[in-house]
């Protein structure tokens, strides 16, 4: 088992605790494997009626995959090809699928930072958010795309919210997550002792219903996404990233100006790939979305955009990624469609058994 994943069973509930606080619980291959082993073990264990996954701290549930690992391994191998990278994404996406179809209640307490891979191990279950929740699919900021099932759950958000969240990579809070359909329940920190008591004392077979009853008494407050919904739907339904930019440029509002500023820092290519990904994801089931994303990951590391993005934001921290292409005007349809070209025949796809 991974030193960063602690598992136990109490009162009919299997508990998975992510405990890598210095890295905000960023997932390593060993952590993915440890979570998968626990879930597979408990799946057929009659003494476990529900599963609760949480962090050892309120600072972060899980900030995503271990992007330093992505950078180091990707740089060290030709065209970003590495057995370790292949294993990581194949096994992570398999875990995401397992969570979506887990036969027992699977509950995620999404405290603090919940991004990327953290969303992947939460979105298929019962999702609890708190005052500290900072949720995002920010992959376009590092030259990647919203994976771990992002093409599935973002494409099913109301209106154009999925395009907005995926293409911009902005961070939202608990009220926004509930509004976007990316969370189920809100638990205020002011009442945290009561929540902890409930989680510890309630038998696993009754845990999901008990959480729903508890959360019904609490209100997360107003959502900024709700306030901006009309503008989001207007601009992000434009049909393409260039059309979204043009629509925003014709709007003198504060929302439009702020959104344009955010988008100037993102990878032009990966914003366009993300838009196409969410469009395609709307017509696919969970397995189809994960298979599509698995293909895109291979192309993405061969392209090298993610290696540059991680270098600029995490390794060198110069915040000056040299995106290729550098501008949205240089991104062609052929560049985008190349990411969706099959890498393997269907019978050999790493996720063919999902």
Widest sheet, order of strands: 1-2-3-5-7-9
The fold-level CATH name is: 2-enoyl-CoA Hydratase, Chain A, domain 1
Gyration radius, in Å: 20 Å
What structural category do the secondary elements indicate?
alpha/beta
Output the CATH class name: Alpha Beta
- Taking all residues together, what is the mean pLDDT? 95
Order of helices and strands: EEHEEHHEEHEEHHHEHHHHHHHHHH
Name the overall outline: globular
Number of strands: 9
User: Which architecture would the CATH scheme give at its second level?
Assistant: Alpha-Beta Complex
Largest sheet at a glance? Answer: 6 strands, mixed
Explain what this protein looks like in three dimensions.
The structure is a single chain. Strand 1 and strand 2 form a beta hairpin. 47% of the residues lie in helices and 11% in strands. The chain contains 17 helices and 9 strands. The strands form 2 sheets. It has a 6-stranded mixed β-sheet, sandwiched between helices. A 3-stranded parallel β-sheet has the order 4-6-8. It is of the alpha/beta class. Helix 1 runs parallel beside helix 3, helix 2 (67-76) packs across helix 16 (305-315) and helix 3 (83-100) packs antiparallel against helix 15 (286-303).
């Amino acid at each position: 088992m991974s030193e960063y994943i602690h598992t136990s069973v109490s009162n009919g509930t299997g508990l998975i605790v992510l405990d890598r606080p210095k890295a905000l619980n960023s997932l390593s291959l060993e952590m993915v494997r440890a979570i998968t082993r626990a879930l597979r073990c408990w799946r057929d264990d009659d003494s476990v009626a529900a599963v609760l996954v949480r962090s050892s701290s309120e600072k972060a549930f899980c900030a995503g995959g271990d992007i330093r690992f992505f950078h180091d391994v990707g740089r060290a191998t030709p065209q970003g090809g590495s057995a370790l990278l292949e294993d990581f994404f194949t096994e992570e996406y398999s875990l995401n699928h397992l969570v979506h179809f887990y036969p027992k209640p699977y509950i995620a307490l999404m405290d603090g930072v919940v991004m990327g891979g953290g969303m992947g191990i939460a979105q298929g279950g019962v999702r609890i958010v708190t005052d500290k929740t900072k949720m995002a699919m920010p992959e376009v900021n590092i030259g990647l795309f919203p994976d771990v099932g992002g093409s599935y759950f973002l494409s099913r958000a109301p209106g154009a919210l999925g395009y907005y969240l995926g293409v911009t990579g902005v961070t939202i809070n608990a009220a926004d997550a509930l509004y976007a359909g990316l969370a189920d329940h809100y638990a205020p920190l002011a009442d945290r002792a009561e929540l902890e008591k409930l989680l510890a004392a309630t038998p696993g077979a009754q845990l999901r219903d008990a959480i729903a009853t508890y959360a019904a008494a609490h209100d997360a407050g107003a959502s900024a996404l709700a306030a901006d919904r009309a503008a989001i739907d207007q601009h992000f339904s434009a049909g393409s990233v260039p059309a979204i930019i043009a629509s925003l440029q014709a709007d003198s509002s504060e929302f439009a100006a702020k959104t344009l500023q955010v988008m100037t820092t993102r990878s032009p290519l990966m914003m366009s790939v993300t838009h196409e990904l969410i469009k395609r994801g709307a017509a696919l089931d969970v397995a189809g979305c994960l298979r599509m994303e698995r293909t895109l990951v291979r192309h993405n590391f061969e392209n090298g955009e993610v290696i540059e993005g991680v270098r600029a934001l995490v390794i060198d921290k110069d915040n000056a990624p040299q995106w290729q292409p550098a501008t949205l005007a240089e991104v062609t349809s052929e560049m985008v469609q190349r990411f969706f070209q099959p890498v393997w025949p269907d019978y050999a796809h790493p996720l063919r058994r999902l």
